[in-house]
TrEMBL record:
Chain ranges of the Methyltransferase putative zinc binding domain: 5-66
Superkingdom: Bacteria
InterPro entries: Methyltransf_Zn-bd_dom_put, Methyltransf_Zn-bd_dom_put_sf, MeTrfase_14, SAM-dependent_MTases_sf
Stated name of the protein: Methyltransferase family protein
Transmembrane segments: none
Amino acid sequence: MSTLCRHCGTPLRQSFCDLGMSPLANSYLTADQLDRRELFYPLHAYVCSKCCLVQLAEFESAEFIFTDYLYFSSYSQSWLDHAQSYVRDTTARFHLDSSKQVIEIASNDGYLLQYFVESGIPVLGIEPAENVAAVARQRGINTRVDFFGTSMASKLIGEDIRADLLIGNNVLAHVPDLNDFVAGMAIVLAADGVITMEFPHLLQLIEHNQFDTIYHEHFSYFSLLTATRVFAAHGLRLFDVEQLPTHGGSLRIYACHAEYPRHVTSRRLRELAELEQAACLHLPEGYTDFPERVKLTKRALLEFLIDARNRGLSTAAYGAPAKGNTLLNYCGIREDLLDYTVDRSPHKQGRFLPGTHLPICAPDHIRETRPDYLLILPWNLQDEIMQEMSYIRCWGGRFVVPIPELAVVD
């Protein structure tokens, strides 16, 4: 492979995780698409030998992937609670009021900005998927349909719009032109403004075997050390970090302009950087043992599903997340081993999973068919899902959690 690192331009030669060929994880199919040609792409992550950014090659443009998108953030109550807590905390910490401007990049359906609006704080959402932005606008949330980068940032500056708080939740990984994106944030950020970005933590991905979070829509995978390096290259300084439970373990980083003196580097930022260095995430050698653990997970899941089928037991799945599509396609799991999946989002119901073509039903289908096992694909929401679906225990149903290693829960 001769692809260059999207941050520092170094040729990518060291493999991190090879998951074979897979379709785009959010390319859900309608019934009339099932017999048409479906595109599969290499799903192979590499690690840069210089800056240690873990990344995929770009096989489809962001415009193709995100223009019509079926992920709506508001269908997870735990995620809404997370957003509301964030708004409450940042409003107090950074003294936000009606004189301040909040901008969220990849604002989705307004799941977060709605809470700033309730507090009378001016907001602007930037969302590339027009169908998703339309939902936010229906809620009265000021939203522009566009991809963010230096061009968009310059337009905002030309309109005298600057961010006192600039937010990006689970967007940094989705950006193919990483340098243009971060440079754009530096442009639109007010002189005393603050950036917060949330993204899955690479250290958690490695330590907890979360290989299914690798899919084509995620171009990059970040450690704190690499994120610090990328932001510094564009005149931005990280001054604080929080470790979050979301998405199986995420980071929320806080950044400001490098020359802004008032934000002192926190102790927890220094301690997490030291923890990552102890795990050798600043060296290529820290990434060599991951592939074998991935193969063990695949074998364990297949052995379980095959054994259940041979014993005449039925298995359905809960959820239609992108991570689930990575897992099912990597393992080659189809209707011979898994009957169907369900999802709370009406935008996904009635469609089919990419690659595996498993039908996506409404959650009530579980009660109607009474499967013996329920495979939880969004394992990061397992507590919420097990509470919601606790009634399967009435007929002896059991939950199956595939990551970090296979577990069957009564």
